[in-house]
Amino acid sequence: MPLLSTYILSPCILDALAVVIEVANHANDTMKQGDNFQKLMQIQYSLNGHHEIVQPGRVFLKEGTLMKLSRKVMQPRMFFLFNDALLYTTPVQSGMYKLNNMLSLAGMKVRKPTQEAYQNELKIESVERSFILSASSAPERDEWLEAISRSIEEYAKKRITFCPSRSLDEADSENKDEVSPLGSKAPIWIPDTRATMCMICTSEFTLTWRRHHCRACGKIVCQACSSNKYGLDYLKNQPARVCEHCYQELQKLDHQHAPKIGSPGNHKSPSSTLSSVLHSIPSGRKQKKIPAALKEVSANTEDSSMSGYLYRSKGNKKPWKHLWFVIKNKVLYTYAASEDVAALESQPLLGFTVTQVKDENSESRVFQLLHKNMLFYVFKADDAHSAHKWIEAFQEGTIL
């Protein structure tokens, strides 16, 4: 045994072992590079048209189908994540895809919504495009969130190598929750179904009083509150519809960074000069007087005890209504949709009691709100787990 150990630990053997390990690692790296090249070529051939996906240094990381939320519906999209970009496509036929966009990871941000009701979603923000995606489950969403976040971080660090003037702190700041200047990035559009009223004046949308999206912040607004146009950086200063709030904020930013004499500056659309005239014209909007108390808490407030969709009935024989509820400061607020800025009604919960309805049909999803043993409301959640969390939130709100 001593002779064997001496033989194994001899310098010649150790040097030879190091060479073998180095050769094996090099062979593994070569095989990985070959597999990566084949995958990039496969993706490139699967795209309609002529697109150069194979690039020096580009590495394939992840692929999968996610639902993209458009204005009205959810649409399936195929995503390919690389170490420098996120490719999103539309499936067409026979395993082929139509390229929608190749989004650089530079300056990209990814986050999940604060509302628990949207636990399968993640939000992608980039300079060119921003949107909401929905996975089939929360674990799948978390996998994508982790993969994209890690890729963004590694890409930012790699850019420092090629840009010595950039510090690590500057790269990290791009990926943190710092607010980008208004108009510098494409906003995430709020889906039409998540707002029943203008997010500025609270006028109710109808078939004739339609929804419009602010191209600066993504909010849903009415025609009267979005009659201005402004040149936005991410659109290369092309005039686009903006809401009143963003129009005023963009003007302030322009005054703070006033162009020097002789420079082109920001060109406004002629419609912006007529905004005051347009506001004076009688409109067909349906606007109700809403008490101030119903405007104190918006449906998407982040500091609530509980929020989400529930079915509500005023009695066992009454029809169910699908509404958004928020419990905050021991008050129950009711909304028609999850992004409405004013509540339909508010109800203090002190003095109420909550009981769960247990029968074979309800599957532990139904619970009642009682006042002095009189039935006030009946609620139904999507599943037993959600119902349990809502019951706990209601019970907490009924106690001083």
From TrEMBL:
Q: Which SMART domains match?
A: FYVE, PH
GO cellular component assignments = cytoskeleton
Q: Which residues form the PH domain?
A: 59-153, 303-399
Which CDD domains does the annotation name?
FYVE_FGD6 (cd15743), PH1_FGD6 (cd15793), PH2_FGD5_FGD6 (cd13237)
Family matches, as Gene3D superfamilies: Pleckstrin-homology domain (PH domain)/Phosphotyrosine-binding domain (PTB), Zinc/RING finger domain, C3HC4 (zinc finger)
Q: Which UniProt keywords apply?
A: Cytoplasm, Cytoskeleton, Guanine-nucleotide releasing factor, Metal-binding, Phosphoprotein, Repeat, Signal, Zinc, Zinc-finger
Q: Which residues form the signal peptide?
A: 1-18
The answer, when asked if Zinc-finger is one of the entry's keywords, is yes
Which InterPro entries does the UniProt record give? FGD6_N_PH, FYVE_RhoGEF_PH, PH-like_dom_sf, PH_domain, Znf_FYVE, Znf_FYVE-rel, Znf_RING/FYVE/PHD
Indicate the segments forming the FYVE-type domain, all copies. Answer: 192-251
> A Gene Ontology molecular-function term?
guanyl-nucleotide exchange factor activity
Cell compartments where the protein resides: Cytoplasm, Cytoskeleton
The name of this protein is FYVE, RhoGEF and PH domain-containing protein 6-like
- Which species expresses this protein natively? Sus scrofa (Pig)
Q: What is the lineage of its organism?
A: Eukaryota, Metazoa, Chordata, Craniata, Vertebrata
